[in-house]
Specification:
This protein is of the alpha+beta class. It has helices at residues 2-13, 22-31, 87-92, 113-136, 146-154, 211-216, 237-244, 247-253, 255-259; strands spanning 33-37, 42-44, 52-56, 60-65, 74-79, 84-85, 99-104, 106-112, 157-161, 166-168, 176-182, 185-189, 198-203, 208-209, 223-226, 230-236. Residues 16-137, 140-261 form the Cyclic nucleotide-binding domain.
Length: 264
């Protein structure tokens, strides 16, 4: 029973399972198998066939991939408690897209293909399809591999705003980065003390804001306000670093976008 409670906690922390009904979560929970790994163990290997996905209970695991034209693997991210990996092979019936190696000993729980297909696949695939086309059109992310964008989509939180509603406020602390998926917004900023903020930027679908707070650990530099009905998706600092490493690396990989980067 204690083990079941542990797994249930991890399911609620994982993007793949936290939207499932209690009944479906219990079906997944009953089907899960426990696996223990030690440092340097290879959990899954790029190019292999895959028939299970894993949810991390404990330990630390490195994700690496050999990109076209390269012979050495590139480290993409690390997985810790609450994360899930290995689902791409099940979602798309494709070989393993990356290699996962255990860095610190720990426990993983696996879900087999049949359970995944029956319970989880439709919900996960719909979520990915919703965002992947949008993400492929975001200029700052155009250098990312489809694999990286799919993992990014998994971490999104969606927010809906009415016209005139503030998304972020000047001088507040910020720990979240936003992309606009539908609608328009604008930024205002106080340029002279004692005077009303003035409009300094317009935003549309595919634009982003909030990067300054993540990169420089500074308060918000401006207000961002919905001009129309607005749908935005956000990533908190932890999700961004967990999935893709420090956000600065993304801007460095797309240096032309970085040098012309918007301010908030």
């Amino acid at each position: 029973e204690e083990v079941k409670q542990k797994i249930h906690k991890r399911l609620n922390e994982s993007f793949l399972f936290n939207t499932l009904s209690e009944k479906d979560q219990n079906i997944v929970l009953d089907a899960m198998q426990e696996h223990n790994f030690k440092a340097s163990d290879v959990v899954i290997r790029e190019g292999d066939d895959g028939d299970v996905l894993y949810v991390v209970e404990s330990g630390l695991y490195n994700c690496s991939k050999v990109f076209p034209g390269q012979t050495e693997p590139t480290n993409l991210t690390k997985y810790e408690a609450g994360a899930a990996f290995g689902e791409l092979a099940l979602l798309y019936n494709a070989p393993r897209a990356a290699t996962i190696t255990c860095l610190e000993p720990g426990t993983l729980y696996s879900v087999d293909r049949n359970t995944f297909n029956h319970i989880v696949k439709d919900a996960a695939a719909k979520r990915r399809e919703k965002y992947e086309d949008f993400l492929s059109q975001v200029k700052i992310l155009e250098s990312l591999e489809p694999y990286e964008r799919s993992k990014l989509a998994d971490a999104f939180k969606e927010h809906v705003y009415e016209p005139g509603q503030y998304v972020i406020k000047e001088d507040e602390q910020g720990d979240v980065f936003y992309f606009i998926s539908e609608g328009q917004a604008y930024a205002t900023k106080t340029l002279e003390a004692g005077k009303a903020p003035v409009e300094v930027m317009k935003y549309k679908r595919g634009d982003y804001f909030g990067e300054r707070a993540l990169i420089k650990n500074e308060p918000r530099a401006a207000n961002v306000i919905a001009k129309t009905s607005l749908t935005a998706v956000s990533l908190d600092r932890h999700s961004f670093k967990r999935l893709l490493g420090p956000i600065e690396d993304i801007f460095k990989r797309n240096i032309s976008s970085y040098t012309s980067m918007k301010t908030e």
